[in-house]
Amino acid sequence: MAKAPLATAVSRAGGIGFLAAGLDASTISSSLSQAKKLLDHQDQDASSSPLPVGVGFVLWGSDIASAAEVIRKFVPAAVWLFSPRKVADLVTWTEKVREASDGKTQVWVQLGSVAAAVEAAGLCKPDVIVVQGADAGGHGLARGAGVISLVPEVADALAREGHGHIPLLAAGGISDGRCVAAALTLGASGAVLGTRFLAAKEAELKPEHAEEVLRTADGGVSTVRTTVFDAVRGTTGWPADYDGRGVANRSVDDAEKGMGVEENKRLYQEAVAKGDGERGKQGRMITYVGTGVGLVREIQSAADIVEGLRRDAMAILEQTRAKF
Ligand SMILES: Cc1cc2nc3c(=O)[nH]c(=O)nc-3n(C[C@H](O)[C@H](O)[C@H](O)COP(=O)(O)O)c2cc1C
């Protein structure tokens, strides 16, 4: 869903958009070529700056050699590392990214606990640490805190261990300017939004999928963290401490009532075979979203989203200060 039109629109508006390489680094070349064209970016030479988009890799199943090839060729501004089998794998990836880009590509790592953030900071000295809270849409740690306690605890722990200079970004449940203002007051240098950009004009998802995002409210109740989505889709292989948050649907309901994986998988495949089958509580199609989904109410251009977030966050911070 996060392809070149979305990533470049976010970057052009003053954020940084990430392309999702997911588990398969070989597919990302064409998106990067398109991003380069859309941004009218000149070929890399000694004087040129990196391509102003990032690329996200899901480490546990990604091939580091293909990733390095793509990084060497396109030199993206940042690489996003997520879900290593062990924190030490981040070291290998960090070294490879820095070597392939001649140090021009920043290394961002997304982590979900205080211990992992401190360990990663010490082992691979990332340029940015993204702290992912339990409200986040998509995959993340099954056991974790929300950003309201996680971000300040990570900030304190990093400062204690001598890593206080590494910028922290908050991710998970952040859907509007109020949430961005809150993230900044928690000690984050910025915010990461996934769910909100599912409602960007440039996001590549089917209309029924986008409608489901707009329709879903009360995210703490209507979404759930579970491994059922991966089980029915067959996307198994995630590290054991991960699951994913999405709209609670019929597959989850059936699993909770005791249906076995094979039967649940069969029903899911039947729903997929019907085309983009039914969504929502009664459906089986998977809609990964965070608890902030209830704040996502309209489709907007990515530029309007980024500019609105920045404008609203600044206004709220000023209003809050004026209150005291
Ligand atoms: C549909 C969807 C797909 C995602 N895919 C990935 C992914 O491929 N790699 C990754 O590191 N994070 C992924 N995430 C998680 C994001 O990195 C981020 O933690 C999350 O979107 C932040 O929470 P929010 O969705 O509440 O804004 C995904 C999130 C969503 C909603």
TrEMBL record:
InterPro entries: Aldolase_TIM, NMO
One protein family per Pfam: NMO
GO molecular function, one term: nitronate monooxygenase activity
Alphabetic keyword roster: Flavoprotein, FMN, Oxidoreductase
Record CDD domains: NPD_like
Superkingdom, natural source: Eukaryota
Keyword Flavoprotein annotated: yes
Descriptive protein name: Nitronate monooxygenase domain-containing protein
Organism whose genome encodes this protein: Trichoglossum hirsutum
